[in-house]
């Protein structure tokens, strides 16, 4: 078996054969008249008309039988077969094809359409032309890329050789389109907010830090889809806004976490978390049905049915039931003892981090779909407190297969309360908590001018990864990879 270098060198020599004939093997223009999908869909008419057309694509297979060569083309819309006959195309063009063409090359062919004795839709080629000469061989058709790291590094080959992977990303595009169409139908305005911020807001996560040379100051890549900016738009008089965009978090990797991902956030004035829960349940069901064609699926070892009305469970009672500890009143010492007893590793020893660690342990045991409500104020710095119990908030989260899928709440619009919570977060930062939320005095100033009561909601591609039963990394076209020379 030839090595990659030997194959590459042999193909480079073939480039010289093009140059000897004064042919550019990488032309800018193409004569293509119809796609391969169109060729297949309109085949009967094309065959009857005997009309000559140009089609183009990448060669996926070559089968030669003396004076006859069958090829299969793929142009991204579909596959189509071509037949080159020496007595039809001329000796020179036929022999030159044999000399210089390889699987992986992009070519265009001109000819008429007919059906083979086996019933295969085919073009009888009368002319051909090189569009892009490949220098490296494609993976074997039946084996493809076996190494997981190599698949992610060469995603273009993974998609090319595996139709299921291509279908996955077509589903993902449908997933986001379904959200966008639903929200626009509900009179939401799509907006764009900054991805580079002076202070990160809208979530508790470690940000990526960089430097703005012109302003000579440090800035951060955003960790939410413009939560504090979208709320400013509510104050500006927009009733309903949403954004679908990239988010960056400088954290560890896991099947449910990557450092860069896409999220959706929307904000609706004059809607509270109860109305928001009804609204988003309807939205999520519609999106799931549009994406999968069903509301029943298996994911991460669980059988899920989204069709019934989703049960509500409370944060405090759920932890009490599973761990026999009341996180509203337990001390740091009691929480740490419980976590140590469970063998759970945790970062940070303040009440907020310990409470969150205990909840995450419990969350993994919940199949769902369920709505989690009555989340403590301690772990909800941007959520409105409940009137009947100010230690809890009007916050709701969808829990599915042991993971958090969404986050939503009645937005805090009391500037004094918000400032106090920011001060509490600032204290955590000063104590070394790298995930605490950065205070934003300009946001508080906006609240002092007045922001209407509102419901805010976030959902991301983690939900899509659960719908299709894949890790988050597998559902990203190009995930960040460490260069081989740094490994």
Keywords for this structure?
487 residues, alpha+beta, OB fold (Dihydrolipoamide Acetyltransferase, E2P), BirA Bifunctional Protein, domain 2, 2 domains, 9-stranded mixed sheet, 36% helix, 24% strand
Task: Write a concise synopsis of the structure shown.
By secondary structure, this protein is an alpha+beta fold. The chain has helices spanning 4-20, 36-41, 43-49, 86-89, 91-100, 148-153, 155-161, 163-185, 227-235, 273-292, 315-323, 332-342, 351-363, 415-430, 441-449, 461-467, and strands spanning 53-65, 68-74, 79-85, 106-115, 121-132, 189-190, 196-197, 209-212, 217-221, 240-248, 260-269, 296-299, 302-305, 311-314, 370-373, 395-400, 403-404, 406-410, 454-460.
Can you characterise this structure?
This protein has 487 residues and is an alpha+beta fold. It has two domains: 4-138, Beta Barrel (OB fold (Dihydrolipoamide Acetyltransferase, E2P)); 157-310 and 368-480, Bira Bifunctional Protein, Domain 2 (BirA Bifunctional Protein, domain 2, 2-Layer Sandwich), CATH 3.30.930. It has helices spanning 4-20, 36-41, 43-49, 86-89, 91-100, 148-153, 155-161, 163-185, 227-235, 273-292, 315-323, 332-342, 351-363, 415-430, 441-449, 461-467, and strands at 53-65, 68-74, 79-85, 106-115, 121-132, 189-190, 196-197, 209-212, 217-221, 240-248, 260-269, 296-299, 302-305, 311-314, 370-373, 395-400, 403-404, 406-410, 454-460. A hairpin with a 2-residue loop joins strand 12 (296-299) and strand 13. It is elongated and about 90 Å long.
């Amino acid at each position: 078996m030839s090595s990659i270098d030997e194959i590459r060198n042999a193909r480079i020599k073939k480039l010289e054969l093009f140059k000897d004939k004064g042919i550019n093997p990488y032309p800018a223009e193409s004569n293509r008249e119809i796609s391969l999908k169109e060729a297949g869909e309109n085949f009967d008419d094309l065959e009857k008309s005997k009309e000559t057309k140009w089609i183009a694509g990448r060669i996926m297979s070559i089968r030669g039988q003396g004076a006859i060569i069958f090829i299969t083309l793929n142009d991204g819309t579909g596959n189509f077969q071509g037949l080159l006959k020496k007595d039809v195309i001329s000796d020179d063009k036929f022999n030159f094809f044999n000399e210089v063409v390889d699987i992986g090359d992009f070519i265009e062919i001109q000819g008429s359409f007919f059906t083979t004795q086996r019933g295969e839709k085919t073009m009888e080629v009368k002319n051909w032309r090189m569009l892009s000469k490949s220098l490296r061989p494609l993976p074997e058709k039946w084996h493809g890329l076996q190494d997981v790291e190599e698949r992610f590094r060469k995603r273009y080959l993974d998609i090319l050789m595996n139709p299921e992977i291509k279908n996955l990303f077509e589903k993902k595009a449908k997933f986001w389109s379904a959200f966008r169409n639903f929200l626009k139908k509900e009179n939401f305005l799509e907006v764009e907010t900054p991805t580079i911020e002076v202070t990160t807001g809208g979530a508790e996560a470690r940000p990526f830090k960089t430097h703005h040379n012109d302003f000579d100051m440090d800035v951060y890549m955003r960790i939410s889809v413009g939560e504090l900016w979208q709320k400013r738009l509510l104050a500006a008089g927009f009733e309903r806004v949403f954004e679908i965009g990239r988010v960056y978090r400088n954290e560890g990797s896991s099947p449910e976490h990557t450092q860069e991902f896409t999220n959706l956030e929307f904000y609706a004035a004059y809607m509270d978390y109860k109305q928001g829960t009804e609204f988003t349940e309807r939205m999520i069901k519609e999106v799931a049905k549009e994406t999968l064609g069903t509301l029943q699926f298996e994911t991460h070892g669980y059988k899920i049915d989204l069709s019934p009305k989703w049960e509500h469970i409370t944060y405090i009672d759920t932890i009490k039931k599973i761990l026999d500890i009341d996180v509203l009143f337990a001390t740091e010492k009691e929480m740490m003892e419980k976590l140590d007893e469970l063998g759970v590793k945790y970062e940070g020893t303040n009440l907020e981090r310990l409470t969150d660690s205990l909840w995450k342990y419990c969350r993994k045991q919940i199949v769902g779909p369920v709505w989690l409500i009555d989340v403590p104020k301690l772990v909800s710095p941007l959520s409105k407190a409940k009137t009947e119990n100010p230690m809890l908030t009007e916050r709701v989260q969808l829990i599915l297969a042991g993971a958090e899928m969404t986050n939503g709440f009645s937005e805090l619009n009391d500037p004094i309360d918000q400032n106090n919570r920011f001060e509490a977060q600032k204290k955590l930062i000063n104590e070394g908590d790298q995930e605490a939320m950065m205070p934003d005095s300009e946001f508080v100033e906006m609240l002092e001018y007045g922001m209407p009561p509102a419901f805010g909601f976030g959902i991301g591609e983690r939900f899509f990864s659960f719908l299709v039963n894949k890790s988050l990394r597998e559902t990203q076209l190009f995930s960040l990879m460490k260069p081989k020379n740094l490994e």
